[in-house]
Amino acid sequence: MNTSLRATLLAACLLLPLSACQQQKAETAPPPPVAITADAIGHYCGMNLADHPGPKGQILVGGRDRPVWLSSVRDTFAFTMLPEEEKDVRAIYVTDVGQAPDPRKPDLTVWIEARKAWYVVGSRQRGGMGEAEPFPFGDEAAARRFAADNGGTIKRFAEVTEDEILHPTLPSEQTAADEPAEQGGNHGGGHGAGHGGTP
């Protein structure tokens, strides 16, 4: 075997693992976010996403051509927590509140992978559905500024608890825990009751 042929074969052998690695990365890379369309309907509320202010979410599930649209970030978390929802999740995206001057009017073209975001949980700001909302930020410093102005705790995706999502309490409602059960009985509704969550 001549030197030229030997060098060609060696180069081909070296390139094969690189090609396989690149193909594997392409297959495992999460799908990109999808632009919100005029007919995007919230998975839980059944209403058009444009009807609600505040940040939104989308979850890309295996076997589906379109994302599962969520009218709030709280709904997005709930989808991942409720046992009856699909579990073949390929990607989760939320709108980055830090890219807009008003958290109730975020730029709905700016998405961040939900598991990479910083969240302000328990702030005085309410979500688009008028309920407690974990506000997502792509930048930690922006999240800290928001928390300094509006209260709340900064958390990563995995640190947000089911109670904070399925049974949230707004700051103005925290005194309800000291009231008789018959007076505060409606505070535990939301996702736990309406979405089939565990009692």
UniProtKB/TrEMBL annotation:
Sequence segments annotated as region (Disordered): 167-199
Gly residues compositional bias, start-end: 185-199
Protein name per Swiss-Prot or TrEMBL: Nitrous oxide reductase accessory protein NosL
Range of residues in the leader sequence: 1-22
Bilayer-spanning residue ranges: none
PANTHER family linked to this entry: HTH-TYPE TRANSCRIPTIONAL REPRESSOR YCNK
Keyword Signal set for record: yes
InterPro entries documented for this protein: N2O_reductase_NosL
Gene3D superfamilies per the UniProt record, alphabetical: 3.30.70.2050, 3.30.70.2060
Key words, A-Z: Signal
